[in-house]
Amino acid sequence: MPRRLLRTVILTVMLVLALPMRAGAEESCVNCHPNVKTELADSVHAGELGCASCHGGDPTIVGMESHAAAKGYVGKPRRADIPRLCASCHADPARMRPFGLATDQYAQYQTSRHGLLLAQGDDRVAVCSDCHGAHRIVARREPTSPVSPRNIPATCGRCHSDAQLMAPYGIATDQQEKFRDSVHGRALFIEEHPGAPTCATCHGAHGATPPQVGAIAKVCGHCHARIRGYLEEGPHRKAAEEGGLSECVSCHGYHDTREPDDELFVTACSGCHAEGTPGAVAAEKLRTLLRQTRDDLTTAREEISRVAETSPTVVRFRPRLQQGWAYLMEALPVQHALNVNRVADLTRGARSIADEVRGAAHEAEQDGRLRYLVLALVWVFILLLVGVTVLYRRERRRARAAGEGR
Amino acid sequence: MFQPAKSDRSSTSLFYPLGEIVWGTLHRAVPARISVGHAFGALALFLFALQVATGLLLMIYYRPSAEAAHYSIGILTDEVRFGWLVRSVHAWSSDLLVLAAMLHMVRIYFARAYLAPRRLSWATGLVLLVVAVAFAFSGALLPWDQYAYWSIDAARETIARIPVVSSALLNVFWGGWDIGEEVLLRFYAFHVGILPMVALACLGIHLLTVWNAGLQEDWREPGDPRARTTRPLSDLLLDVLLVVVIAWGVVLSLAVVLPPTLLGPADPLAPLPDVQPRWYFLPTRRLLRSLPPGLAALAVAALFVVVFALPLVDRAETEPAWRKVVHRALGVLAIAAWVYLAARQYYR
């Protein structure tokens, strides 16, 4: 009995002593850094990584002994070490395979302006945590992620809008502001177009670098593939190859790219082609063709809407008009080949459809007017008939009364 | 007092006795003074004839299938000469026919013209009203556009709430719980095959009984010298001609000024939100959707039975003053309830 009692007491004491140690294994970092625990819980790394994975040390020890260098404690990683630290997992295909993540980010980063400058010892450049965050890393698809498409301009802008930070590199700081009002910025922020470009679409994400002159058409061509094809057919390709023309951006600008309109022919072409030269003449022809076509199609569309108020079935011409718009949509990229005859062929097709639809709308309008005219005539006939019938009725009644009187 | 003249035509005439029958008919004595309300019956008959005429023309172009129905109506409206007018007149006269039939019934109720010997007129008239509504309802689906599809879907939902009989009703009229070509073909069969036969049979009996009983005179105080004056039927037919000609003008004007729309083809994946039923179904929809479904269905059925059996319930030749008041109050109350429920549904 005493031996059994002794054994029970010893086991109980061991259990009681073991409890804080067990608790310490989970909680020791949190004892001093409770906020970090909360941030980590929201992170994609929750359940996968612990504090020691990045910061080293021994979280099973309660107290500052856990921070001992002998325990591998590195504390806050140096900025220069962060890409390599993240890559220790993210460049490992075996570890990333279950998550379906690419493993080339570090390799790309090393080719980026950020990576190259970091390799030269400049640790003011962006490292992984500057864009993705540190403890609370959220998946890109989440709207709150700093690298979700709508947040990317602001994330890049945190450094690239900082004049003091950018001054040593001689980089402008108005890109974010310009982008916001551009056709691309409106597509991203206002129209919320799923394919709208962000900074990373043109510059790359991990391999971020400014596109070189020769590469601009290719970068824009990722989305504007047909325009790129036509551009390469035209004379501007040679100018680009010789380095004199910065391809797309020469006419459309960058960061503040606006919706192209007729005015672009005046403002952009005149920069290189003096008035009266073949280039300026071709530009003027293209401008006239496209403007007239758009005007004709717009007028036809308005005519249909106006006539549809009285003759609703006229809306059946809308699909036909849509074919005209399709010709114009075809002509818009074709103009980059600077082949006036091809554009003329397409716009002729569009304008003939616009004329046809306008004619049909006018006919429907005339038809509508005729209907009302005929209706008015029918009413005249009806009233005449009513009048004659009433008179005849009265006459009959009178004759009958006279007959009964006799 | 009007005395019909005798025909002096010989019985050896080629068309004997057709001429005599027409002559006798035109000179049949009818009450000299009848109310304007009598016009509704004639109006309904005219609109029914208009329905038959325009309906037959529509049948030439209409194709009853889910693929072709909408297209054929589009062709009819846009390409066929006066096709739009025929469709528009058909649509408007169907609504006006239901309205005329309802007003006709209201007049009959207040005039107590359902008493013997007009009991059968009342019963067949009531069936004709139901048939007119069924015609309009089934016809509304046939263009197979978005409105047609989703309004019928809303009706299906309403019917599906009725306990016990909903499955049977939907299986018979809808061809199941889903909406597809089955319902289009069923409605088409009803619209151009079954309902016209029922309508013609009932209309025949209705007109025969009316002809047999004669027109009911306006109610007059006893001793009023005008009470028993008569005139020939040809005189009355002139009045009917006036009504018909003006009604035709109204139908034509509505058809030209407000032609029915044709939305996009029926698309089961693009619901139209808040589809209202046609105006004559507004009160029924409100009732079926605000009361517990079983109770509402019973209420509608009971109401129908009571109205149908009215000549059996109210059979006294002369009624005391208090019954007159109750009779009129019930009528006014029913109309007020109908209008109230319709308004509640429309402005819900």
Can you describe this structure?
The complex is a heterodimer of chains A (406) and B (348). Helices cover 63% and strands 0% of the residues of chain A. Chain A has helices at 2-32, 34-42, 51-55, 82-90, 93-96, 105-111, 113-119, 128-132, 152-160, 163-166, 175-181, 183-189, 199-203, 216-221, 225-233, 236-241, 247-252, 263-269, 278-308, 318-334, 340-405. Chain B is mostly helical and 348 residues long. Helices cover 66% and strands 2% of the residues of chain B. Chain B is globular and about 65 Å long. In chain B, 28% of the residues are buried. The chains are: A mainly alpha (406), B mainly alpha (348).
Main sheet summary of chain A:
none
Low-confidence runs of chain B: none
Number of helices of chain B: 13
Query: What pair of chains forms the biggest interface?
Result: A-B, 19 and 23 residues
- How much beta of chain B, percentage-wise? under 5%
How would you state the average pLDDT of chain A, rounded? 87
Structural class of the helix and strand makeup of chain B? mainly alpha
